[in-house]
Specification:
285 residues; alpha+beta; 2 domains; five-stranded antiparallel β-sheet; three-stranded antiparallel β-sheet; 5 helices
């Protein structure tokens, strides 16, 4: 483990000057009491610096959770802080504002920090900077820790393309039979919207058709090749929106990217997590 770095505070020079004046005065007048105060103050200062470095270096921190989320949304890092000796300090991630914290000896205390804004991808929490001052305010000790773990920043979920049709299901045609209407769901094709009910002041409805082929509830394949006319990041954002729409509607789905692995058919939180992580890890154009 690296040693804590020491930096002098503005009060150090006046304090050193005071010790010099006391030492010169005690020498000039052979004053034992002056020598006593000089060495007493110097001992307090030296002991405080040694104790400060030991306290800072004795702090242990463990990553409890590095929150993953969508690009542009605030994410949080949860740490567990522990120290063998009581200490008041300031800490924060590199390039982020620091916040004060007081730890009691032997206490395990959770701490929540905001993660810096990052682009889509897989990231490490980075470095944690811990700093504290001695009791006299003469020196400041700083210690840097490299935090373990990683978190995913998913593409921002947005796009205007409707969900692709379920596999094996042709779009509504003359051979399909009208079965009725149901409430509108995100991703429904505009051609299926029941505009007459909307004109009568009703809520937005969607027309349902059945073709008798048994594939009306087949799985959806979210294929990036369907979005070849969009830039890469826009394609990933649309795929992300499709994944969320399928989960909201409770439909099974698979994910296919033009480059890299694919996610087979599935549904549920594990499927959602696999797809979102794959989108986050996709190489940039």
């Amino acid at each position: 483990m690296s040693r804590a770095r020491l930096h002098h505070e503005p009060l150090l020079l006046p304090f050193a000057g005071l010790l010099v004046v006391l030492a010169l005065g005690a020498t000039q007048y052979a004053n034992n009491l002056g020598f006593f105060f000089t060495f007493w103050l110097a001992t307090i200062a030296a002991g405080g610096l040694i104790g400060l470095r030991r306290k800072i270096e004795g702090i242990t921190c463990r990553v409890l959770q590095a929150e993953s989320g969508f690009e542009g949304t605030p994410l949080q890092l949860v740490l567990e802080m522990r120290t063998p000796q009581a200490i008041s300090m300031q800490l924060g991630l590199a390039s982020e504002p620091r916040q004060p914290l007081h730890l009691v000896a032997g206490e395990a205390r959770p701490l929540t920090l905001g993660l810096p804004a990052r682009k889509r991808g897989v990231h490490a929490p980075g470095r944690l900077l811990i700093s504290g001052r001695d009791r006299l305010g003469l020196m400041r000790a700083e210690h840097e820790r490299t935090l373990g773990g990683r978190y995913w920043v998913y593409p921002a979920a947005h796009g205007e393309r409707p969900l692709p049709e379920p596999a094996g299901r042709p779009p509504p045609a003359g051979g399909d039979e009208f079965e009725g209407i149901r409430p509108y769901r995100a991703g429904d094709a505009p051609a299926r919207i029941h505009w007459k009910s909307l004109a009568r002041g009703s809520t937005l409805q969607t027309k349902q058709f059945g073709g008798g082929d048994g594939l009306r509830h087949g799985p959806r394949v979210l294929d990036e090749s369907r979005l070849a006319d969009l830039p890469r990041e826009a394609r990933l954002s649309q795929l992300c929106a499709w994944v969320l729409a399928c989960e909201t509607q409770g439909e099974p789905y698979a994910l296919r990217l033009q480059s890299g692995p694919s996610v087979p058919l599935g549904q549920g939180l594990d499927q959602r997590l696999r797809c979102l992580r794959l989108l986050a890890e996709a190489p940039r154009a």
